[in-house]
Automatic annotation (TrEMBL):
This is site-specific DNA-methyltransferase (adenine-specific). Its EC number is 2.1.1.72. Keywords: DNA-binding, Methyltransferase, Restriction system, S-adenosyl-L-methionine, Transferase. Residues 82-213 form the Type II methyltransferase M.TaqI-like domain. It comes from Propionispora vibrioides. Gene3D superfamilies: Vaccinia Virus protein VP39.
């Protein structure tokens, strides 16, 4: 059984208390079945056992019965035997403090996801293993994709399967409290998971940018699901700002925007950014280290790169949010041209005849160029993706996909090529409003607030947004001026 040790990050006691308090694992615990299905060294289980014993003693349950209750009411699983040994030692110690000895702890050693659960639970409490798709070993990936509906699309995280399996292991009135990475609210590949949990979800306790685990950047939240719940809303608790909001479940579609559902003030018309402008990803050469040139000697008609000349006629100035920060001049090989009809491509023969120096430069990389995962019908010297190219030959705005503090907006001229970040042009090349209007909108507090809500937290302080997020931004029509 392979064990991924990177996911073995254990829950601090403060958050253990919160998990158990939020789900109501506080009293009347004798006879209530509880599961911790990835128990590690027992951070959560120790507290479960402590609460169970104290509450049962308060209710005057005999020591003998409590011992039997601990054995049949509390169930755990863990894949790593070393942790089970530590965990049992901790549980023995805590039980011993209350005069309970030789308890046969019911901890299953093995893969919880492959376990057929026959006894269902009143409570499932946990902090499951988070393992990114890349890090799940290939045979396990296939198993998870084939057995969990939350994992059928794209690059799922291992924890999605745990959430699904845990919900399935609840009694009809059972409840789940799970500490999860908050990117599940926004990640593209967690959309099936969001749809799966939404009917049961009652509360989200969002730690926002508080870091729970030393040395880890994960942004965390606790979700509470209740199988017996039919409410049309959830309560969203922003723990950083000590605020809570009631959110209508019907409005949680696509990426979840977790903030107050502000009703549009009467009489104020709202419009969508994407109806006037178009945000898109920058060019994708699929081999920037060949196409983007930052180390060169500049001549009149050629630049020289490691002794090899390239015709300047084939080059465009390349700009990215990063190069703007460093004020560094970079060129990009641009093997296309535009006419009134739009983007034009060179044939192989034309290209070789017109740019013999650049061809010599590119041929040095012919093997890696041919190994790219290109769009269909691409010549060997062209970029891997054509999508971004059609609208580039005009003035545009560049913003970073990563928003930190404020939205940095840069206007670029027709000839400059954005090589990373998002670029924005007027919709359909027919500006009703010119780009200065888009600049004002993107610099507004409203857009920043929106980006924070819709973006995926990247490294604690930054939010990653996509072109679709920008196009979907709605704002009062008064900003269009
Ligand atoms: C994030 S840790 C959390 C441990 C504990 N729940 C806590 O909160 O302190 C996840 C644990 O899941 C265990 N694990 C990983 N894959 C598992 C699987 N398929 N079945 C059971 N346990 C697993 C890991 O060994 C690790 O101890």
């Amino acid at each position: 059984m392979s064990v991924n040790t990177k996911c073995q990050v254990f829950t601090p006691n403060r958050n253990v208390q919160e998990l158990l308090d939020y789900i109501g694992y506080t009293q009347g615990l004798y006879g209530k079945k509880v599961a911790e299905n990835s128990c590690g060294d027992g951070s959560i289980l120790v507290e479960i056992v402590k609460r169970y014993i104290i509450d049962s003693m308060d209710k005057k349950v005999s020591v003998d019965k409590i011992k039997k209750g601990l054995e049949k009411d509390i169930w755990a699983a863990e894949i790593d035997i070393a942790h089970i040994i530590n965990c049992k030692a901790k549980l023995d110690e805590i039980a011993g403090e209350y005069g309970l000895v030789d308890v046969e702890w019911n901890i299953f050693h093995g893969d919880f996801l492959k376990q057929k659960i026959t006894n269902k639970f009143d409570f499932v409490v946990g902090n499951p293993p988070y393992i990114t798709y890349k890090e799940i070993d290939p045979s396990n990936r296939v198993f998870v994709r084939e057995n969990f509906e939350t994992c059928v699309i794209g690059k799922f995280d291992y924890c999605y399967a745990f959430i699904e399996a845990s919900i399935k292991s609840l009694k009809k009135t059972g409840k789940l409290a799970y500490l999860i990475p908050s990117n599940i609210f926004k990640n593209q590949f967690a959309s099936n998971l969001r749809n799966y949990i939404l009917p049961y979800l009652t509360d989200i306790y969002d730690y926002k940018n508080q870091k729970l685990f030393a040395g880890k950047l994960t942004a965390s939240a606790i979700i509470i699901c209740d199988l017996d719940n039919s409410s049309k809303s959830i309560t969203y608790h922003n723990l950083s700002e000590d605020k809570k909001y009631i959110l209508n479940k019907e409005l949680l579609e696509g990426k979840w925007v977790l903030k107050e559902n502000i009703a549009n003030p009467e009489g104020v018309e709202f419009v969508r950014f994407g109806d006037y402008f178009h945000a898109a990803s920058s060019v994708a050469t699929l081999l920037n280290k060949v196409y983007i040139i930052s180390d060169f000697i500049e001549g009149d008609n050629y630049i020289t790169v490691k002794g090899q000349q390239i015709e300047k006629e084939l080059l465009r100035e390349a700009v990215s949010p990063r190069s703007l920060n460093y004020e560094k001049k970079e060129y990009i090989i641009f093997p296309y041209y535009y006419t009134k009809e739009g983007l034009q491509k060179y044939s192989d023969v034309e290209f070789r005849k017109k740019f013999p120096c650049a061809v010599r430069y590119l041929l040095q990389f012919k093997k890696i160029l041919s190994e790219r995962n290109n769009d269909e019908g691409i010549n060997w010297f062209e970029y891997g993706r054509v999508q971004a190219l059609a609208h580039l030959n005009q003035k545009k705005i560049l913003i970073s996909t990563l928003i930190t503090g404020h939205v940095k907006v840069t206007l670029l001229n027709e000839l400059v090529i954005p090589t990373s970040g998002l670029y924005i042009v007027p919709k359909n090349n027919q500006p009703i409003y010119d780009l200065s209007t888009a600049v004002n909108i993107l610099r507004s507090d409203l857009f920043l607030e929106y980006a924070k809500n819709v973006g995926v937290i990247s490294n604690g302080k930054s939010f990653r947004i996509s072109p679709k997020d920008v196009n979907n931004f709605t704002f009062p029509v008064s900003l269009l001026k």
